[in-house]
Write a structure and sequence with these properties.
This protein is of the alpha/beta class and about 425 residues long. Helices cover about 40% and strands about 20% of the residues. Strand 5 and strand 6 form a beta hairpin. It is globular, with a radius of gyration of 24 Å. The two termini are about 35 Å apart.
């Protein structure tokens, strides 16, 4: 899991991997561009850059894209650009009822999408693992049929899962599925993939398990950076849908802390004399802005009990649009409590941005008054220290988008893990080895 920047490499192979990454990232983000431009931007010596780009071309990650004038008397420069379809990432978002899968290239273009119910029972993780493995098999099998990506290398799969994921990136704690303790979901899915499945034999597929709110935070961070042109140093993300969660992004990377729960606001106490929470504390944020608490405060407890929280949340949204007083009061109160959490987060972490997700983003107009009431005193004294929370823009796609971003980052971080392309031209006329 990408967290804080890695230690500087200490051996020649690690140095080469880092330099390949620097070159590929610049081409991916700034291309088409010449070798001279990459050298100037990265600080890599021109001779080294020539060898590195030849390696990237051999792996099929980069190709030459024609010539541009040198701007003087020099020879025209060969342009380099990313080959997005060379590597594909599989992503699956796991919710209480459905599995949503996407396969996308390095440009984020989806080549396969699917959504299906999993019907996994509460308490036993194996049926869910079996369903996830089946969805991944189906997505993996769809890749050869995509005409736009012949010979594509499948990097692996990112599983977006509600619940804290520990630092090893394998074990998840999920009360949503009634699991009493940490479950090695990644290991269970690998076991299922290694068994012969419908229509095929064993599948070896690298897997990464990441908390869905962390992935959504990463996606919203990148979206915010794209809109503003400059990435913030840090971002805290708070979302509510089936529960209350969040994530923390520092310098473009998910930060999970020592136990995988950094940036999780759901069990942040916001009232010392509040109700007792299942986590053992009192007055946790989830007890005030979670779906049960919020719909009950709006007078929808009976509907929630009879039809479920989703139906109650839909009714609450309709009541807000209609201007019903009890619904508006519930959101005012929730905004104030959310503001208290924002004050705690910004005081402790000094983040540059706070982004809201889930129905906190959808209902931001009705939360604003309560937020402003709670934040106004601190902002009057030091407004730069308390960013105004803004709604996210990716909606329900945030977690899947973040999963694909995570996979793309992994490829850009370690291009050497991508094998040579079967169609590599490097053994022919040397299309990249000596061009300037």
């Amino acid at each position: 899991m990408p967290v804080a920047p890695a230690e500087p490499p200490s051996d020649s192979a690690a140095v080469r991997r880092l330099n390949l990454s620097r070159a590929l990232r610049h081409i991916a983000e700034r291309g088409p561009c010449s070798r001279s431009e990459v050298s100037a931007a990265t600080g890599l010596a021109h001779g080294s850059l020539t060898a590195l780009t030849a390696d990237l071309i051999d792996r099929g990650l980069v190709r030459e894209a024609g010539l541009t004038p040198a701007g003087g008397r020099g020879r025209p420069r060969r342009q380099l650009e990313l080959v997005p379809g060379r590597v594909l990432t599989l992503a699956v978002r796991i919710t209480r009822e459905r599995l949503q899968t996407t396969v996308a290239d390095l440009a984020g273009e989806a080549v396969h999408r699917a959504s299906l119910p999993h019907r996994a029972p509460q308490g036993d993780p194996r049926p869910l693992a079996r369903a996830v493995a089946g969805a991944l098999r189906e997505a993996r099998a769809a890749v050869p049929a995509v005409p736009a990506v012949p010979g594509a290398h499948v990097w692996g799969a990112v599983m977006a899962m509600p619940g804290p994921v520990d630092a090893d990136g394998a074990h998840v704690f999920s009360t949503d599925f009634g699991w009493p303790g940490p479950v090695d979901l990644a290991g269970l899915v690998r076991e299922e993939l290694r068994r012969a499945g419908p229509g095929g034999g064993p599948v070896e597929l690298p897997l990464v398990l990441v908390n869905d709110a962390n992935l959504a935070a990463l996606a919203e961070y990148r979206a915010l950076a794209a809109r503003r042109g400059t990435p913030p140093r840090s971002l805290a993300y708070l979302k509510a849908d089936i529960g209350v969660g969040g994530g923390l992004v520092l310098d473009g990377r998910i930060h999970t802390g020592g136990h995988g729960v950094a940036g999780e606001p759901g069990h942040m106490p916001v009232a010392f004399d509040g109700p007792v929470c299942a986590c053992g504390a009192r007055g946790c944020l989830a007890l005030y802005v979670g779906p049960e608490a919020l719909t009950d405060a709006a007078g929808l407890a009976e509907l929630r009990a009879s039809a479920g929280p989703d139906a109650a949340l839909t009714a609450l949204g309709e009541a807000l649009e209609a201007g019903e007083r009890r619904a508006l009061d519930a959101l005012d109160a929730a905004g104030e409590v959310l503001g208290a959490a924002v004050l705690a987060i910004t005081s402790l972490l000094d983040v540059d941005e706070v982004v809201l997700g889930g129905y906190l983003a959808d209902w931001h107009p009705w939360l604003e008054r309560g937020l402003a009431a709670r934040l106004s005193g601190r902002r009057a004294l030091a407004h730069r220290l308390v960013p105004v929370p803004v709604p996210g823009v990716l909606g329900a796609d945030a977690a899947l988008t973040g999963a694909l971003t995570y996979g793309r980052d992994a490829v850009l971080d370690d291009p050497a893990a991508v094998p040579s392309s079967p169609s590599s031209p490097s053994s022919g006329s040397g299309s990249g080895s000596g061009a300037r």
